[in-house]
Amino acid sequence: MKAMILAAGLGKRMRPLTDHCPKPLLPVAGKPLIVHHLARLRQAGIHEVVINVSYRAEQIIAALGDGDAYGLHIHWSRETEPLETGGGIQQALPMLGEAPFLLINGDVWCAALPAQHALQGDDLAHLMLVENPFHHASGDFGLAGRRVNQTSTQRLTYSGISVIHPEVLAGQPQGAFALAPLLRTAIDNNRVSGEHYKGHWVDVGTPERLAALERQLQVDRG
């Protein structure tokens, strides 16, 4: 299985930290945020990674190179204009191929990847869901067994980590579009599985959350 890391965002919420450094390269526990993802991917046995870049793309490419230092092979998908999540994935599909792939938001930190890599039956996606953080108390989706729904009153938050089948994007025109509406359609068609991850996960969306993560990891290291 291949993986894709979404790293093309402007990092507006992280300013002023991202005024001169792209968000994926912000340090956490002594190494760039995105390098934690690369380490998890290698541990999971994934060796090919596609990373989309736009804002300060050259800095990210210079920092990570071809991925050899991390035991991976990195393919770069450069975006000359904002393509949003769906459009960014669509542009990268020639590098990802026709099989399901692991998708990771570049601005989250997580101690693990989904336990289930293979999609079941005619499923189009598998979502890793987490407890609702304080800044997103209403959550995103319900989970009944291993099926994701939009009807449960008790909801969990999408972690930004999932397994995606390229068919999710079938029929979409070239250009910018969001992935979320396509996932919601697949959920309504009962074609999305999920799991409730209860380990350490953080949406590193603001300088304050980044600082809190750094403090927690220092405590964990003892």
From TrEMBL:
<dbReference type="InterPro" id="IPR050065">
    <property type="entry name" value="GlmU-like"/>
</dbReference>
<dbReference type="Pfam" id="PF00483">
    <property type="entry name" value="NTP_transferase"/>
</dbReference>
<feature type="domain" description="Nucleotidyl transferase">
    <location>
        <begin position="2"/>
        <end position="114"/>
    </location>
</feature>
<dbReference type="InterPro" id="IPR005835">
    <property type="entry name" value="NTP_transferase_dom"/>
</dbReference>
<dbReference type="InterPro" id="IPR054790">
    <property type="entry name" value="MurU"/>
</dbReference>
<keyword id="KW-0548">Nucleotidyltransferase</keyword>
<dbReference type="InterPro" id="IPR029044">
    <property type="entry name" value="Nucleotide-diphossugar_trans"/>
</dbReference>
<dbReference type="GO" id="GO:0016779">
    <property type="term" value="F:nucleotidyltransferase activity"/>
</dbReference>
<protein>
    <submittedName>
        <fullName>Nucleotidyltransferase family protein</fullName>
    </submittedName>
</protein>
<keyword id="KW-0808">Transferase</keyword>
